[in-house]
UniProtKB/TrEMBL annotation:
Family annotation (InterPro entries): MARVEL_domain_protein_3
Domain of life: Eukaryota
Keyword Transmembrane helix: yes
Transmembrane regions: 20-44, 56-80, 86-114, 121-144
Keyword Membrane assigned: yes
Organism: Drosophila rhopaloa
Name listed for the protein in its UniProt record: Lysosomal-associated transmembrane protein 4B
Length: 165
């Protein structure tokens, strides 16, 4: 049985409200990123496969962002319907994205340092690690709500505490 990591979100909201806010934030950021991908001339590179054309990398990113939108919608529905099974994909995806973001931020910061862009590397590390910390906190909030719902469902039908609205 998973144990909740947090009892509240931002010390004043329930983990339920924080989970919905995290899902909405993920959807909004994904839509903004898709718009930025298609409206700017940014050259995207992958860390390992450097020979992939830029258009293919953009398509891969957009497909991943669309899946993030879908999984975030599932998570929001799971929170609102109190169904922990709909939250599982977001919990798994969230921790994978947090680890991937941390690796990407450190790698890109080191590349900036190697290329001689010290200020850019420092700023990239500072803002990237802040983003990674916020993402990890959002994941902890959603995981805590998932653990609360799992505990509620394991108690059984007649042992549940009344749900307050």
């Amino acid at each position: 049985m998973p144990k909740p990591l947090l009892n509240s979100c931002c010390l004043c909201q329930s983990t339920r409200n924080g989970s919905v806010i995290s899902g909405i934030l993920a959807i909004v950021l994904s839509i903004i990123t898709i718009v930025v991908i298609f409206t700017t001339r940014v050259h995207f590179k992958t860390i390992i496969f450097d020979v992939i054309p830029n258009d293919i990398v953009k398509i891969i990113l957009v497909v991943n962002l669309c899946m993030t939108i879908l999984i975030s919608l599932l998570m929001i529905v799971g929170v609102l319907k109190r169904n922990q099974y709909l939250m599982v994909p977001w919990v798994v995806l969230g921790i994978m994205i947090a680890i991937g973001l941390l690796i990407s931020v450190i790698y890109t910061g080191v590349v900036f340092f190697i290329d001689g862009y010290v200020l850019t590397g420092v700023l990239w590390l500072i803002f990237g690690l802040i983003c990674c910390a916020v993402l990890t906190y959002c994941w902890c909030v959603v995981y805590s709500e998932y653990a609360n719902l799992t505990e509620e469902n394991e108690r059984g039908r007649y042992n549940k505490q009344p749900y307050r609205r």
